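Re: that chain you flagged

S.,

Sorry for the slow reply, it's been a week of failed gels. I finally had a moment to sit down with the sequence you sent. For the record, here it is as I used it:
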Amino acid sequence: MKSRTNMLAGNAIKSIIVFALPIMFSSLLQYNYALVDNIIVGRYVSTDALAAVGNTGAINSFIIGAALGLTSGFTIPVAHAFGAGDRRKVAHYAGSSIVVAFIIGCVIVVTAHILSKPLLRLIGTPDSIIDLSAAYVNILYFGVPFQMLSNNFTAISRAVGESRKPLYFFTVSVFVNFCLDLLFVRQFGWGVEGAAAATLISHMTAAALTGYYIIKINPDVEIEKSDLKLDVRTGWEQVKLGIPVSLQFTITSVGSMCLQSAVNSFGANVIAGFTAAGRVENLTNLPMSALGVATQTFVGQNYGAKNYGRITKSVKSIFLLDLGVSVAMSLTLFIIGEPMVKLFMTEQNPAILAAAHRYILAICQCYSMVAVLFVLRNTLQGLGFTYANMIAGAGELAGRILIAFVFTPLIGFSAVCYAAPAAWLLADIPLALIYLSKHKKFKQLAKENASE
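Prediction finished late last night. Pasting the structure tokens below so you have them in one place:
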């Protein structure tokens, strides 16, 4: 019980930071699945293999990101029920989310295998790497149900204020991934298929560990056998919350695939440089992402407890905190960016390094916009207004399409480097307008509660 963070009382910012730190390290560990695959494949297979694995990023976001987006919506009612102090509803919603996550995960496995090769052709994957890309993702997609389960179990844990335990479980799974990557790729020579198999087994490990903790150990989630039976009404209620979040990932990923098609036109070296720099950039936005997830839990629990005043006062401070973190992460990315890109290569390739440098420089200049995105999107998601995610995703899609099909033909690769900032800006604008309209409502509710 002591490890659970109290979001309903005390210093809100301190609680959010304490809660966010394990999330950040957990995300770092989860991120290492892709990072380790990229580094080991790049060093021990070939540049084409690195480009092939990196080329699948947009498609993976489209399929796997959409699946994991659903689980973010499934557990919003768990946080609301926990804030309201209704333990029976906590268990009911948690059990339902587990069942629904597994069923949908199995459906996605079949769909993903049907779509993988057509999607790779759609984004203009070069013939030299398309078979490698397909071999990698077709093994990886068998892990979707396990990814959905582990993310769902983790989201349940966070919804009741426990963010530390998942960190331990992901530490184990990443260690498994790293060891198996070296064994399958370096020792057995299985190439990209070996990297994918290692990641699949590590996802299974994470699902088993997080599931055992939630179902058997966590004292705040007392799931009974009856809670693990499909309840169509409850399941549909959770799916309705998850669909907009999933669509946000899907819409954003469509934009990323459009952008990837533009990157692919520049050849394998630029694809590899863009991939490596993107992996490093994703690493440095983890602190902002973790604060966003912590904000969602904080807002969700306090919404359930009807602490509207605590929500409106704290979000301002969270916003300023995240902006400060974005400045620090911009400097960090600028300093460590190129040295980390070199880890992906056994021999330095000037073309790869040049592409990576241009991308990193563009992101460093605009990182504050993604901080705004994380705060606003997760605040609205915690309140249950998940439709805002879909609207933000549409803004991101518009930004990436404009860059891919309008500005890249005119400006070249420099335009590609500013695609993410353009997407963030066009997502921030509608999110800010939605948040301001909801902010007025909750300020009024806070006044009414105070006068009672």
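What I noticed first: The radius of gyration is 21 Å.

Talk soon,
D.
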